[in-house]
C-alpha cells in the first residue's frame, strides 16, 4: 500500500484539510519495480569494471605503456576486470535461462553420498587456503534424482563462499542427512558470519553484506541467487543460518524417496 498526502491550506495559512490517497500496489507494479531495480543493478555492476578498465587503458595510452613496472600491472587489472565482467554476464545468462518458463532439468539418479564426496574431493585437491575439511556423510547409498550439472554448480557456489570467508586454519564441515521426505545438505564454515538481519537476504540477486569485500574476492553477488533458483527448480529449499564472528551454515534440501525393495526387481 502506498499513501500520498495533500494538505489543503487557505490563503491565510491555516490548514483546514488533509487528503490521503491510498494506492494498492498491484503484483504487476511490484514485478515492474523489481525489473527496473534489476536493470539498474546490472548496469551499475557492468559500469564499475568498465570505468576501471577505461582509466587504466587511458593511463597506458598516456605513457604508462612505456613504464616497465606500471604497464604489466595496469594490463593485469584490465584483465581481472574483463574476467569479472565475463563471469557476471555468464551468471546473468544463466539466470535468464532459469527464469524462462520452458526451463527443463535433465535429471539422472545419483548416489548422493558418493557424488557429494566427489565434489568435495575436487575442492580438497585444488584449495589454496589452509582450511580443513570435515565430512559427515553416511555410508549407505542414498539415491536422489538430480540434474547433476546444476547441483554441482549449487555446491560450487556454496563451497567457494565457505572457503572465501573461512579464516586461516578454519574448518569447513560437510553434512548429508535424510530428514523425512528429503535429503538435507549443509556446509558450515567458521568465518566472519553474517549479521542476523541480513542472513535471509544473501539469496537475493546482487545482495552482498560487504560490497567492497565481495568485489575484492571477485564475487558477482549472483552465486547464491542462482543456487536458490536451481534448488527451487528441483523442488527443494535453501536457507542459511549464521552467527557473527562464529560462522555460517548454508542448508538445502532435495526431495528423496527411499527405494522400496520391490523397485529392485
Ligand atoms: P558473492 O559473489 O558476493 O559471493 P553470493 O551470492 O555468492 O555473491 O553471496 C552473496 C553474499 O552473501 C556475499 O557477498 C556475502 O556477503 C554473503 N555470504 C555468502 N556466503 C557467505 C559465507 N559463507 N560467510 C559469510 N558471508 C557469506
Description:
The chain has 265 residues and is an alpha+beta fold. Helix content is 43%, strand content 23%. It has 6 helices and 9 strands; from the N terminus they run E-E-H-H-E-H-E-E-H-E-E-H-H-E-E. A 5-stranded mixed beta sheet has the order 4-6-7-9-8. Helix 4 packs antiparallel against helix 6 (223-233). The radius of gyration is 24 Å and the shape is globular. The chain starts with a strand and ends in a 10-residue tail after the last strand. The model has no long low-confidence stretch (mean pLDDT 91). It binds adenosine-5'-diphosphate (ADP). Adenosine-5'-diphosphate binds at residues 157, 161-162, 165, 189, 191-192, 194, 202, 207-210, 214, 219-225, 248.
Write the layout of secondary structure elements.
Layout: E1 2-9, E2 15-23, H1 27-61, H2 70-99, E3 108-111, H3 112-126, E4 132-136, E5 143-146, H4 148-164, E6 171-179, E7 182-188, H5 211-216, H6 223-233, E8 238-243, E9 247-255
Backbone CA Rg = 24 Å
Q: What's the helix count?
A: 6
The ordered string of helix (H) and strand (E) elements is EEHHEHEEHEEHHEE
**Shape assignment:** globular
The average pLDDT score comes to: 91
N-to-C CA distance:
59 Å
- What spatial order of strands do you see in the largest sheet? 4-6-7-9-8
The tally of beta strands, per DSSP, is 9
Structural class: alpha+beta
Which key features would you list for this structure?
single chain; alpha+beta; two-stranded antiparallel ribbon; 23% strand; globular; binds adenosine-5'-diphosphate
In short:
This protein is an alpha+beta fold and 265 residues long.
